[in-house]
Amino acid sequence: MKLIIGYLAAGAEIAAALVIGSAVIHSILTCLRQLLSQRKHHVDSTEAIRLQLGRGLALGLEFTVASDILSTAVAPTRQDILNLGAIVLLRTLLNYFLEREIRQGEQSRSSETEHY
User: Domain segments of the chain: what residues?
Assistant: First the structure.
């Protein structure tokens, strides 16, 4: 059982790295494409890049929380549980504020497009 959970936790960590890494690479490429294009640069497109990157980071954080939970699932000590609680609390708070900022950004983008 420990071996299977260890592989699952490692898989969740790999998934987190892939999701976050691909979000960062995609954002960088989109930003470079925007900078090199002949079109006028808009604040709206920069905000879209930020929101897309934020979504990728939020999803990556979910995978890291899952990995931490799996790592502590088999015969945890009291210290393991306390460490897990602190890590999950910090990552959940970070994810909450990130999601809130994404929602606010999406709402402001939609209200701006309604004005046009």
Answer: 2-115
